[in-house]
């Protein structure tokens, strides 16, 4: 299938192109301002030799490649400096959210069985550079529901109940066509939360005003020193087999193995309230598949060998590579918010998972080879941008870089090329 062969084939092409280009001429020095190399389809020119490159390979240590290390480790350690603040902030977030969940459950509002995704203190930081922004997923279990695709992405669905819902409480959220309305659910949830935040003692919590067209409920938690914002995402948890559009996705056999794939596909699916912007009339009744629980599971168990990054195993640089590219995108988005509006960290994360499949072995990601592995990953991402082709990792038919967003893709690929050619000046510009 397309999705299965895509990245691999692209990888081969990438290698061929690289060989054809030969080695780069840039060996650092002054950053070049948007010259020819930084525009169009110019190949990244690097100090590293081009021939016989294998990800994580050890062939090109020494010689000119060693002349100028990129100091990416330094960038990473800078990033981890913010960690203490994060744990402080997440403590406050947990406190507020726990209170809210208890209160929401206790009411007769249709949300009696709501809980937080993952037991305990699940939270995900939205940005590496922003320790004060969080996402929290609130989950409603649903026993059986019918999914009808609402477009050709295979990611967006209308939801209806086959029979009378067991969850009688949910019937109040059906619209006139019998579809479960994300809008109605969010409006009701928002109302409850707005009332309940007033009862939270010790911490000042408010609900941010609704932005037009945005389904998110955003909490603002104020402390003497900081303002924390928490996006609450409403999700349905459905314990049934994954829809057909996911059949050829999650191609992790080469990387994590067949057995792991089977296990992961036995986990429930999640559907998040998400407006499909392609719809002509926005009715607020579309839901999008979410795989964040699977993504998290793969991140936590990312080795082709079980002990990867555990105390008794070898360390790899996969997570560091992802962190660096996420950070690079964040910094570029801060600099060019308008131009890069269409690109988000999910693009980077998706390209990361594809890279894990292209380079499936732990030896492809040796800790010591961070710079080399990061460049490979980055170049793969560049090819995705240049080709406007980045299949959703779980739904291969769904291209996350459609031609509509070509301008953004081109812009980002130029910026990344520039960074790559000039030894990532943006990493040095403040934190
Ligand atoms: Zn590892």
| Annotation field: number of helices | 11
Number of strands: 10
For the termini, the CA-CA separation is: 43 Å
Estimate what percentage of residues fall within beta strands. Answer: 5-15%
Name some characteristics of this structure.
single chain; 431 residues; alpha+beta; binds zinc ion
Question: Can you put this structure into words, describing what you see?
Answer:
- This protein is α+β, with helices and mostly antiparallel strands and 431 residues long.
- It is built from eleven helices and ten strands.
- Strands 1, 2, 3, 4, 5, 6, 7, 8, 9 and 10 form a ten-stranded mixed β-sheet that branches.
- The two termini are 43 Å apart.
- The structure holds zinc ion.
- Zinc ion binds at residues 302-303, 308-309, 316, 318.
Write a short abstract of this structure.
This protein is 36% helix and 13% strand.
Topology:
Elements: H1 2-21, H2 72-80, H3 83-106, E1 115-116, E2 124-125, E3 133-142, E4 146-149, E5 156-160, H4 182-196, E6 204-207, E7 217-222, E8 227-238, H5 258-265, E9 269-273, E10 287-290, H6 292-300, H7 318-335, H8 345-358, H9 370-387, H10 406-421, H11 425-428
Helix pairs in contact: 7-8, 7-9, 8-9, 9-10
The structure holds zinc ion.
């Amino acid at each position: 299938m397309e999705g299965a062969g895509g990245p691999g084939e692209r990888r081969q092409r990438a290698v061929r192109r690289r060989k054809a280009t030969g080695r780069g001429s840039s060996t650092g020095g002054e950053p070049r301002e948007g010259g020819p190399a930084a525009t169009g389809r110019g190949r990244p020119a690097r100090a590293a030799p081009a021939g016989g490159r294998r990800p994580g390979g050890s062939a090109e240590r020494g010689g000119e490649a060693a002349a100028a290390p990129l100091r990416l480790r330094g960038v990473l350690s800078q990033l981890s400096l913010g960690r203490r603040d994060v744990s402080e902030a997440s403590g406050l977030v947990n406190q507020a959210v726990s209170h809210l969940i208890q209160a929401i459950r206790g009411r007769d509002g249709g949300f009696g069985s709501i809980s937080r995704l993952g037991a305990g203190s699940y939270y995900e930081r939205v940005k590496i550079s922003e320790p004060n922004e969080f996402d929290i997923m609130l989950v409603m279990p649903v026993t059986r529901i019918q999914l009808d695709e609402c477009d050709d992405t295979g990611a967006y669905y209308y939801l209806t109940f086959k029979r009378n819902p067991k969850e009688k409480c949910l019937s109040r959220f059906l619209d006139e066509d019998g579809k479960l309305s994300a809008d109605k659910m969010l409006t009701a949830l928002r109302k409850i939360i707005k009332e309940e935040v007033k009862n939270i003692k010790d911490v000042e919590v408010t609900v941010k005003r609704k932005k037009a067209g945005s389904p998110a409920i955003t909490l603002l938690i104020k402390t003497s020193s900081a303002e924390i914002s928490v996006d609450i995402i409403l999700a349905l948890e459905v314990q049934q087999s994954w829809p057909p559009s996911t059949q050829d996705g999650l191609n992790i056999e080469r990387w994590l193995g067949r057995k792991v794939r089977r296990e992961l596909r036995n986990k429930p699916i999640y559907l998040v309230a998400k407006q499909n912007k392609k719809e002509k009339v926005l009715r607020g009744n579309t839901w999008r598949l979410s795989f964040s629980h699977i993504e998290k599971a793969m991140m936590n168990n990312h080795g082709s060998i079980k002990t990867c990054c555990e105390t008794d195993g070898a360390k790899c640089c996969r997570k560091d590579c992802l962190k660096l590219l996420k950070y690079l995108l964040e910094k570029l988005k801060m600099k060019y918010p308008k131009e890069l509006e269409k690109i988000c960290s999910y693009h980077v994360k998706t390209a990361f998972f594809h890279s894990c499949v292209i380079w499936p072995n732990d030896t492809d990601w040796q800790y010591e080879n961070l710079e080399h592995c990061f460049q490979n990953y980055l170049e793969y991402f560049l090819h995705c941008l240049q080709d406007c082709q980045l299949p959703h990792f779980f739904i291969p038919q769904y291209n996350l870089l459609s031609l509509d967003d070509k301008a953004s893709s081109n812009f980002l690929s130029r910026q990344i090329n520039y960074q790559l050619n000039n030894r990532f000046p943006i990493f040095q510009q403040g934190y």
